[in-house]
Amino acid sequence: MKNDNIKYQLKGLTLSELQQLFKGLGEPKYRGEQVFNWMYNHLTTDFSEMLNLSKALREKLSEKFSLQSLELITVQDSPATGTKKYLFATQDNHKIESVVIPDKDRNTLCISTQVGCPLDCKFCATGLMGYKRNLTSAEIVDQYLLAAKDYGKKNITNIVYMGMGEPLLNFDVTLKTLSIFTSELNKGLSRNRITVSTAGIPEKIKLLAESGLRVKLALSLHSCFNDIRSKLMPINKKYPVEKNIEAIKYYSKKTKTPIVFEYTMFKNINDRDEDIEALAKICNQLSCKINIIPFNSIAHMNPGGFGATLEPTPHERINEFAQSLRNKNVTVMVRKTQGDDIAAACGQLAAKNR
Predict the structure, then answer these.
(1) Is the pTM value of this prediction over 0.70?
(2) Is residue 338's pLDDT more than 70?
(3) Axis-axis angle for helices 273-283, 315-326 (nearest 10)
(4) What domains are defined for the chain?
């Protein structure tokens, strides 16, 4: 039996979808542009505020549609770095987290694409949550809109799909939200400031290349050797290093976009001289840079097995490692740990779910 009380979600719809929706309601297509502007630029969560729509239309929309997919539960501030962590609840009471990371010339919002994660990377707290479900386009976009409302839309300059979950395992929805973020009507965001981070799903990387969106791509590499990478990231058994390197070469060539390699360093595991040689060999084959990330503790999740044995590489060795790569003409950035005092640093996101 049909439930006429269900309200359908407008957030997460692309411009073309909004235009078609209003056409179906007997309204001119430009109403879709107006609502797009209210939702994504003015951060509006109430139809009554959409003053260039008639009162009758606003009331009609309010009866049939919703503008809220997430509820902001808490905001935590890091006194040490100014990092902000947002805890959201979905309408079915799952919890997800997003983080704003401040830097000198940018403020980056790290958004989630899944509730938990199925990949079980041994250095990531999210993997220890298990996997619940994919997020909807509304829930992904709402992380940005609600954080922007708190932090200031103009102050969020970058978006990275590097929160909870693997974006390319929620591929169609990830693509849809990228389309929203990179729309010409969406003011303040540029495709050059949006990065999709993946553990490596080669066929999806190629499909992303063919989408025409041309956002930045980051591969969580962490080791060039399959035996080590498979211990750190079990997905490597299905998608080994060679297949991912082939895919990112295709992406870089197709989109004319440099690749970012994320490389979390672990003591006596991937910080050896042979790791330097292997990284340099890969990096000399394409336009790229390496972001070296110190390992952030996931002790708050009580990891077992191999994950419990992981230790961070000492800072002295990280700097030496980075300089050795630079001497081989590799562009390297050593990232500072930010937000670890509130469990908001890279690899630490893990909301408690029901």
Answers:
(1) yes
(2) no
(3) 40
(4) 8-66 (1.10.150.530), 70-342 (3.20.20.70)
